[in-house]
Amino acid sequence: xxxxxxxxxxxxxxxxxxxxxxxxxxxxxxxxxxxxxxxxxxxxxxxxxxxxxxxxxxxxxxxxxxxxxxxxxxxxxxxxxxxxxxxxxxxxxxxxxxxxxxxxxxxxxxxxxxxxxxxxxxxxxxxxxxxxxxxxxxxxxxxxxxxxxxxxxxxxxxxxxxxxxxxxxxxxxxxxxxxxxxxxxxxxxxxxxxxxxxxxxxxxxxxxxxxxxxxxxxxxxxxxxxxxxxxxxxxxxxxxxxxxxxxxxxxxxxxxxxxxxxxxxxxxxxxxxxxxxxxxxxxxxxxxxxxxxxxxxxxxxxxxxxxxxxxxxxxxxxxxxxxxxx
Length: 326
Ligand code: BT5
Hints:
Blueprint: H1 3-13, H2 21-28, H3 32-44, E1 48-52, E2 56-61, H4 68-72, H5 77-81, E3 83-86, H6 92-101, E4 109-112, E5 133-140, H7 149-168, E6 173-175, E7 179-182, E8 185-196, E9 203-213, H8 232-236, H9 242-258, H10 263-273, E10 280-284, E11 289-297, E12 303-306, E13 312-315, E14 319-322
Biotinyl-5-AMP (BT5) is lined by residues 91-93, 115, 118-121, 124-127, 135-137, 179, 186, 189-191, 209-211, 213, 225, 228-229.
């Protein structure tokens, strides 16, 4: 652990008590200067730490900051060793893809408290304000061929729904293929990126990127998404520490990755929540836009669409908009 994390651990263990700089320096075997620097770093992260001459440091208030220490209290040591928590990054997906290329383990997780260039699909932006949401990427190295990438994306949305439902006791919906909605507004977006071997078509690795709006208030969303986005705080009135949801999300993702062969189970979980079946939709295949009716969801997570001219077709990728739900 870094000095900052070690100090935080000590301050948390000694809540309500002053700990002298000398004591910290001796216990952690680091210089007083390093202690000072780490305390400044913690303050910048939002921790309120009182410093009093001859007494030392007192942790007065913990902010809602995603950190390894809080995760370590709920997850196994081995699990936490394969998690990285960052203060800020351009995009956790970009960061995770670099790691995946350099050979980290299956299920390695990168989480950030902020993204300055959060990515949506097709070059779109995912708004990722500091200390408000969860921005997480998990690396998946499937040791088998994955013929249907839509299914793993769909599985992930079920994992996200389960995590939110378990923590907040609220009902969630999925808009095909992988946006999570509550009461008609988007609370989570998922972007799955794959590295595929050109010759064989074998998947080297996948990076599943998940962005969840947790503690934003309505006026904290920028104008362009104000009408379509929501957060868990807006929907439930609860301001929850994000670490709690993060732990549950990691557990659900681990279970999902261990059960990639359980299509039936995840299909049922998906179908129960999918708000797209039986609806008139606008379909954007990214080359054209057309209207259609969603007749069914198929077991490979494709949709059966009936067009106004009577033509029936399977849709495996693209985007659908439901009337009144963007
Ligand atoms: C997505 O794209 O929704 C996928 C978002 C994935 C974000 C995660 S965060 C961790 C990881 N690292 C990354 O860099 N990305 C992943 P798409 O379906 O294309 O939707 C993008 C559209 O959603 C935007 O054009 C906006 O209209 C809307 N949007 C942007 N930010 C939003 C937010 N915070 N909440 C709800 N809607 C948002």
